[in-house]
Design brief:
Elements: H1 4-7, E1 31-34, E2 39-42, E3 45-46, H2 47-53, H3 56-65, H4 71-82, H5 91-95, H6 104-118, H7 128-154, H8 167-176, H9 187-199, H10 207-217, H11 222-233, H12 241-252, H13 258-266, H14 285-300, H15 307-320, H16 323-327, H17 334-345, H18 352-373
Antiparallel strand pairs: 1-2, 2-3
The protein binds acetyl coenzyme *A.
Acetyl coenzyme *A (ACO) binds near residues 237, 239, 274, 278 and 334.
């Protein structure tokens, strides 16, 4: 490659790092990952402790404010979130514009971006008070939008949020209740849902978070930035992997088909979805908790012998003792067991990434806020290594062969 910049006299240097494998784009005090040790800390607290002793709302407060809340701060934060769960009534008409068979993620990208048209009174990104209102609105309205995307997708009427329920209970009710029928959320299901949200709340500078930061660095409004994050999350190499992982387990079908499948992976015909991670070269600590949740839910619904779970467990056992996976440090990631758990809870595969987006919204918004609060914040503008032609003269169309 001729470095064209040299022809124009450039002397400055830059790093060429495709996929940003070793380039930090920002400083952050929110989340720490040690991929070799399998450690994930939010504001210093291990994810395992947050998943077992905290809850999603408290983790949201922690991510946004840097410290765990006092009881009074917690109560106020929870009440504020609860009071912002409703969507403007006109939003229903917006939903009706989508094809009824639209993938719920496509609805999420559009609906969350559209919040900037409905809630344009909190778009001043230079005002910390308005930034906070936007953050609250996003965290509070995400379950309502996600549940509506689901209801719309399956052709059922929308169920409105209720202020007397917890975040997870409210979401499950909005998804599974049918208007005019009694529906009581099983507390164990609500706890599992809450834990899934907590496990997905933030994960430092992954592709979607970096997308949110890059979009936000130009001064774009928070709703547009989160819509950009959702679009990025949708890809099968990122959040879309939970959907793909379950489809893969279904395709394998029974444990006896695993050796043949593994051979296909080794010959690069396909990837083992839900395995591998850019940063974790050890067991993903979220996967450990997610596996426990999968166990609990399957036991709760009396499906501990669920064939998909059996395939998953056996696939994990085989892969973890196979040289191919050991050499490449490929371990199950959070998505390997989240699909089984969500499926057992009654969600179709098309909703898996939607739930991920719902939970990750707090991480995205905390990172966006951290970036904007930094006085040294600059627009994100990656460099490139140009590999095209050097300068040449324009040829009129009549003279082109
Ligand atoms: N199955 C089989 N082989 C794999 C897998 C996999 N899931 N992941 C990586 N490898 C292999 C690659 O083929 C490569 O092998 P090679 O050295 O023989 O060429 C080697 O491991 C290194 O892989 P890279 O692609 O360089 O790893 P990278 O860090 O770029 O990719 C990624 C990380 C995208 C997550 C990848 O592991 C993957 O696609 N996994 C499946 C999708 C998935 O589960 N994504 C969820 C990630 S977690 C999240 O977003 C919540």
């Amino acid at each position: 490659v001729i470095d064209i910049r040299k022809l124009y006299g450039a002397t400055d240097a830059f790093t060429f790092d495709p996929g940003f494998t070793s380039t930090a784009a920002c400083e952050s005090a929110i989340t720490y990952i040690d991929g070799d040790a399998g450690v994930l800390l939010h504001r210093g607290y291990p994810i395992g402790q947050l998943a077992s002793q905290s809850n999603f709302i408290e983790t949201c407060y922690l991510l946004l404010h840097g410290e765990l809340p006092t009881a009074a701060q917690y109560a106020e934060f929870e009440t504020t979130i609860t009071r912002h769960t409703m969507l403007h009534a006109q939003f229903d008409r917006f939903f009706e514009g989508f094809r009824r068979d639209a993938h719920p993620m496509s609805i999420m990208v559009g609906a969350v971006g559209a919040l900037s048209a409905f809630y344009h009174d909190s778009l001043d990104i230079h005002d910390p008070v308005q930034r906070n209102i936007s953050a609250i609105r996003l965290i509070a309205k995400m379950p309502t939008i996600a549940a509506r995307a689901y209801k719309y997708h399956i052709g059922q009427p929308f169920v409105s949020p209720r202020n007397d329920l917890s975040y997870a209970e409210n979401f499950l009710r909005m998804c599974f209740a049918v208007p005019a029928e009694d529906y009581v959320v099983d507390p164990k299901m609500a706890k599992a849902m809450d834990r899934i949200f907590t496990l997905h709340a933030d994960h430092e500078q992954n592709a979607s978070t970096s997308t949110v930061r890059l979009a936000g660095s130009s001064g774009a409004n928070p709703f547009a930035c989160i819509a950009a994050g959702i679009a990025c999350l949708w890809g099968p190499s990122h959040g879309g992997a939970n959907e793909e992982a379950l489809l893969m387990l279904k395709e394998i079908g029974t444990p006896d088909k695993i050796p043949e499948f593994i051979e296909g992976v080794k010959s690069k015909k396909y990837k083992l979805m839900g395995f591998g991670h850019r940063v974790y070269k050890n067991y993903d600590p979220r996967a450990t908790v997610m596996k426990e949740s999968a166990d609990e839910i399957l036991e709760l619904i009396g499906a501990d012998n669920d064939p998909l779970f059996q395939v998953a467990k056996e696939l994990e056992r085989v892969a973890l003792s196979d040289e191919y996976f050991i050499e490449r440090k490929l371990f199950p990631n959070v998505d390997f067991y989240s699909g089984i758990t969500l499926s057992a809870m009654g969600f179709p595969t098309s909703m898996f990434t939607v739930l991920f987006a719902l939970a990750r919204t707090v991480g995205w918004i905390a990172q966006w806020e951290e970036m904007l609060a930094d006085p040294a914040q600059k627009i994100g503008r990656p460099r490139q290594l140009y590999t095209g032609p050097t300068e040449r003269d324009f040829v009129p169309i009549s003279a082109r062969g």
